[in-house]
Amino acid sequence: MSAADPRTAPRQALTLDDYAALAREGMDPGVWDFLQGGAGEERTLSENLLAFDRRRLRTRVLTGVAEADTAVTVLGRRWAAPVGVAPMAYHTLVHPGGETATVQAAGVAGLPVVVSTFAGQPFDKLAAAANSPLWLQVYCFRDRSVTRRLVERAAEAGFEALVLTVDTPRLGRRLRDLRNGFRLPEGIVPANLPPGDYSSPSGHSRTELDPALDWSVVSWLKSVSPLPVLLKGVTTGEDAARALDAGADGLVVSNHGGRQLDGAHATVDVLAEVAVAAAGRCPVLLDGGVRRGTDVLTALALGADAVLLGRPVLHGLAVAGQSGVADVFDILVGELADALLLTGTPSAAAAGPALLSPAGAGP
Ligand code: FNR
Q: Where in the numbering of this chain does the FMN hydroxy acid dehydrogenase domain appear (predicted)?
């Protein structure tokens, strides 16, 4: 028996960062920069990661718990773990399996997927492959009939919720893409939007997306769809309260993975403020910089009901299609199960502020 050829044998990926390194090796540098980059000098992008790095968890012992339960319930649906896939444009850019492969991996893992307005594959195809909840991320177009048709298509396909992105009156200045003159390769197009020129993501969004949305967009969206509406990109207590008044059914604390305002706070640093304002009246999710099970647990301790995972999903997809995404979920959910057990927390649903500071001492 000969040893595996070290040039072709896949290296073992034990962490989500291992997947990032493997993905980078095989990827066109311009595509890597589009995926990985943030706005400006990428201070917020780095801060999303650093803010998790700074957190430490309190550990309780002798709790008699042999196996922690990672499952949670969000908007009435059971998720196998408090982790969903954040909306990201064009999964087809990194693997021909595209969103279908991601959705299939999520179905096996029992985790939901938020499908982007700019998904590279049609909603009905994704719905046919799905075995877990699908939500639609909505960008609001200047031409409201485009948004309306998009939302109707998703509802017809069986999507269960809408996630309106509210942090993008215009695209952030993504210097890597500007320096690279990044354009989407031929054949990478949004499968659920009318035909058009989408080759420059920043150019297209400047001309087509509505830059002047106000709170009335929430009631408009609810008037054209029966689905619950979550707002993605809320980062202050004031806006959380306002969103609930406007009729939002959930909040996603997000700075778009550091791709919008460079200089915005890390999401984990503003999570508690939003969760306090929401006061249990709606689910609060967080995305940005989640890379380990302890990050998920930290977010839960600060008041999140669940997190959404962005770039690492595309890293797994780029490395090995559906099985790469499945492995990314396995790693993260396995780490979360370990973190629950090792902090003496019986279940994800039981995670609370005492994980970060002594009970009664505040977060
Ligand atoms: C995104 N994000 C995003 N958000 C959104 O509302 N609609 C979209 O179409 C996209 N597209 C997109 C593409 C790519 C390549 C990336 C990396 C991100 C933002 C995304 O939903 C999420 O907020 C961040 O990616 C979360 O941060 P992490 O997990 O990537 O650090």
A: 8-361
